[in-house]
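Fold it.
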Amino acid sequence: MAHSTIDRRFSVAPMLDWTDQHCRFFLRQITKHSLLYTEMVTTGALIYGKGDYLAFNEEEHPVALQLGGCDPSDMARCSEMAQARGYDEVNINVGCPSDRVKNGAFGACLMAQPEVVADCVKAMQAAVDIPVTVKCRIGIDDMDEYEGFARFVDIVADAGCDTFIVHARKAWLQGLSPKENREIPPLNYPRVYQLKETHSGLNISINGGVKTLDDTLEHLGKVDGVMMGREAYSNPYLLSSVDKVVFGDEAQAKTRSEIVHIMQQYIERQTDEWFKPWHVARHMLGLFQGQAGGRIWRRYLSQNGTGKERDPNLLMNALEQVEQAQANAKAFNDSRVVE
């Protein structure tokens, strides 16, 4: 059963090729309360594809499906599929600038067609009871960052959408690659703050360039929620403080070692014949970032997880190497204290 209320103060962004179900299960071991998003799934994949693009682990809640498409009936049909599977939210992608997205007439190019997005929102909300939300940019190409952005939000909000996650950069669909669009257009946080000031009744989350919990708390003074992307993926244990700092949960976070043991058990319960431990381990490369043994962990997983041979004990073997490195580092530091 989908959760009826979602605390949107902190979420982890939908990231193509990254936030699959294995990644989300891993992140859920680090943070209980953060809202997790799937990779973007297109309506075409859901309606016509042969794979199970809606698979997720029950432990992932709260979890939102990010949907790519522009046909209201298809979007409504896929929303019904998502609700039936137990997703807590369906999010419309109006922010991705990749060529695949442009050619499919969805993603950031839809910012120039707010009426299309509004029609999708109406159709989806008529079909499901779970929240329908929109993730967008502050503009595209030569669109005015204030007037064009505000017009887009007004039209989509009038259709019934009350929650917007805004990447505080423009997307340049001409001339910049998807990677460049995540880095080159300047961040304009005040534009998102202004949206919240002028649309106080909407739930507004900010996304783009958020790297620390200090950044998060600063943004939360101006908007309702913060979405973190690449930093949460490359340095995942950063999320271990989110439940306490953002959500006020004083429960003790799991240690890195405890998380590794849980993920080992997760690997052991996989039944897909195509599954490899690397499918899980690749999301865990940054778990020991900044720690003694962090490089050893990353190197061991990369060297021993990517070959043809499947090592069922990949994580435990890597952890043993890390613990040895940490013991050596501690012994070295203790000896210096004695001296």
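DSSP finds 15 helices and eight strands in the chain.
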